[in-house]
Specification:
Radius of gyration of chain B: 15 Å
Mean pLDDT of chain A: 85
CATH topology of the largest domain in chain A: Alpha-Beta Plaits
Order of helices and strands of chain B: HHH
Helix content of chain A: 40-55%
Mean pLDDT of chain B: 88
Number of helices of chain B: 3
Low-confidence stretches of chain B: none
Strand content of chain B: under 5%
Structural class of chain B: mainly alpha
Oligomer: heterodimer
Largest sheet of chain A: 8 strands, antiparallel
Largest sheet of chain B: none
Structural class of chain A: alpha+beta
Number of strands of chain B: 0
Number of strands of chain A: 8
Low-confidence stretches of chain A: none
Shape of chain A: elongated
Radius of gyration of chain A: 24 Å
Order of helices and strands of chain A: HHHEEEEHEEHEE
Helix content of chain B: over 70%
Number of helices of chain A: 5
Shape of chain B: flat
Distance between the termini of chain B: 48 Å
Distance between the termini of chain A: 44 Å
C-alpha cells in the first residue's frame, strides 16, 4: 500500500465534501459538480494507493535471483544443467524435477537418485486456478489457454498474450510480451514462465508427468513445447 | 509498476483539471456532466497509460464507474425520450 497516495486521496475526498457542502449552501450547482468530480478522483486515488509498490517488487526480484542462483549452482554441481525438466505428480503434490531421465517415476522432494541418475525435485505450490471442465477428457487446448490467460495475464500480469496449440500429447505454448523484469529469468533453468506453464498443464490435465521438450527464445516472447505423459 | 500508476494518476488529474475548468468557464450547472466527464477521463487515461493493475479494488472501481456512467447516460436518454 502507498500511504502517501492514500493520504492524498483521503484529503481530496474531505476537501470535495466540504466544497460540495459550501456549494449547496450558496446554491451553486456548478461548484457541487466540481466537488463531485473531485470526490470521484479522490476515491480513484485511494483505490490505486493499494497497488503493489516498487520496493516490494524489487526486494522480491532480489530474493528470487538469490534463490535461482542457489538452485542453478546445485544443478551445476549435480551436472543437471542440461537436464530434462518435468512436473511429476506424487499423490496430490506436484514436484518440479530436474533429471537426466525423462519423467522419472519414483521421486521424493529434494536430491535423490532415480534409475541410477541424480535428480533434484522441488515441491511446487498448486496455482489458484479454476477449472470449469468436470472430466479430464474434455480438457482441450482452449481450456488450457483460458486457464493460462487467467493466471499469467489477468492475475499475475507477467505477459501480454498466450497461445496454445496441441498435437496429440504435445502442447506448444507461445507466450508473448514478457514482463521486462522477468525476461532475464528465462535464461536460467528455473524460469517462472516454464514453472507456471508446466504446473498449469499438469494441474489441468491431471497428468502423471508433464515434460518440457524444448524452450525456444523468440524476439516476441517464449515458445515452450511440452509433452504430457499420462 | 508504481511508475505506471503515478503516470496514470498524473494524466487522469490533468484531464480532470482541463475538463472541470472548461465546464465551469462555460457556466455548466449540471452535476452529472462533471461526473460523466470525470469517468470518461478515467477510462481514457486508463486506456492510454495501462497501469496493468488487477487488484480487486481496482476492478470494483472500474465496474462502479462504468455503472455510474451508464446510469447517467440512460437518465439523459430518458429525459430526451420522455421529457
Amino acid at each position: 500500500m502507498n500511504t502517501s497516495l492514500l493520504i492524498l486521496g483521503l484529503n481530496i475526498v474531505v476537501v470535495s465534501a466540504l466544497l460540495s457542502l459550501y456549494g449547496l449552501i450558496i446554491g451553486d450547482s456548478g461548484l457541487v459538480g466540481i466537488a463531485a468530480s473531485l470526490g470521484l478522483a479522490g476515491g480513484v486515488i485511494v483505490a490505486y494507493s493499494r497497488a503493489p509498490q516498487d520496493p516490494s517488487t524489487t526486494s522480491l526480484l532480489n530474493y528470487s535471483k538469490a534463490l535461482v542462483n542457489t538452485v542453478t549452482s546445485v544443478l551445476e554441481d549435480l551436472d543437471l544443467l542440461e537436464s530434462n525438466i518435468c512436473i511429476a505428480r506424487k499423490d496430490t503434490e506436484l514436484l518440479m524435477v530436474y533429471s537426466k531421465t525423462p519423467c522419472p517415476v519414483e521421486v521424493d522432494p529434494g536430491l535423490g537418485f532415480s534409475s541410477g541418475s541424480p535428480y533434484l525435485a522441488i515441491p511446487i505450490e498448486t496455482p489458484s486456478i479454476e477449472i470449469t471442465e468436470t472430466s479430464s477428457t474434455s480438457i482441450t487446448e482452449e481450456s488450457i489457454e483460458r486457464v493460462l490467460r487467467s493466471l499469467l495475464i489477468d492475475d499475475l500480469t507477467i505477459c501480454r498474450g498466450v497461445k496454445v496449440a496441441s498435437e496429440g500429447e504435445s502442447y506448444r505454448v507461445f507466450i508473448t510480451g514478457l514482463a521486462e523484469y522477468l525476461k532475464d529469468f528465462t535464461k536460467y533453468p528455473i524460469d517462472p514462465y516454464t514453472i507456471l506453464v508446466l504446473t498449469v498443464v499438469s494441474y489441468t490435465t491431471s497428468a502423471r508427468c508433464v515434460r518440457l521438450v524444448q524452450r525456444i527464445h523468440m524476439p516476441e516472447g517464449l515458445m515452450l513445447i511440452l509433452r504430457v505423459e499420462k | 509498476m508504481q511508475s505506471r500508476v503515478s503516470l496514470f494518476i498524473l494524466v487522469y488529474a490533468l484531464m480532470i483539471v482541463l475538463s472541470t475548468v472548461a465546464l465551469y468557464l462555460l457556466r455548466e450547472q449540471r452535476v452529472d456532466v462533471y461526473i460523466s466527464l470525470n469517468i470518461l477521463s478515467y477510462y481514457v487515461s486508463y486506456a492510454v497509460v495501462r497501469p496493468s493493475i488487477s487488484t480487486n479494488i481496482v476492478r470494483i472501481i472500474n465496474i462502479i464507474l462504468f455503472i455510474l456512467f451508464i446510469a447517467i447516460v440512460a437518465y439523459r436518454i430518458y429525459e430526451v425520450l420522455a421529457p
